[in-house]
Predict the structure.
Amino acid sequence: MTQLTEQEARQMIAVVNTRNVDKIVEQYADDATFQVPNMEKPLHGKESIRSYLSGSFVAFPDWTIDVSKVYITGNDVVVVNSVRGTQTGPLAGHDGKSIAPTNRKFFEDQMTRVVLNEGGKVQSFRAYGKQLDIAQHVELPK
């Protein structure tokens, strides 16, 4: 695989901003891992990732990623970004219960590390940030 360009990395992120789960998941390897700050353990495989994203986009239909910087070395991509959205849909809680829409907005600065496999698919996705910020912005129960 040739090294990804910054423009290609930004295009991959632009697909996320469409909130088209099928198009997003197409970018992942079958055995990819995915982890965001509120997860104790990473998700494994495309179907787990699909399920998580589908639920997130129902809860936050205006979910948007804004990119500040992209750093690329080989198959390793680091993105400095912010994420924002409004919780206008039900949000699945960790206990399996649904949290009613709060209609509150959130904003979070993040750093995301993406590792690509030899075929150019996302092998590992890991976002780092303060997930508590989101919980506080949308006033989720403690």
Q: What stands out?
A: Strands lie at 28-35, 43-44, 64-73, 76-86, 91-92, 98-99, 105-116, 122-129. The radius of gyration is 15 Å. The longest strand covers residues 105-116.
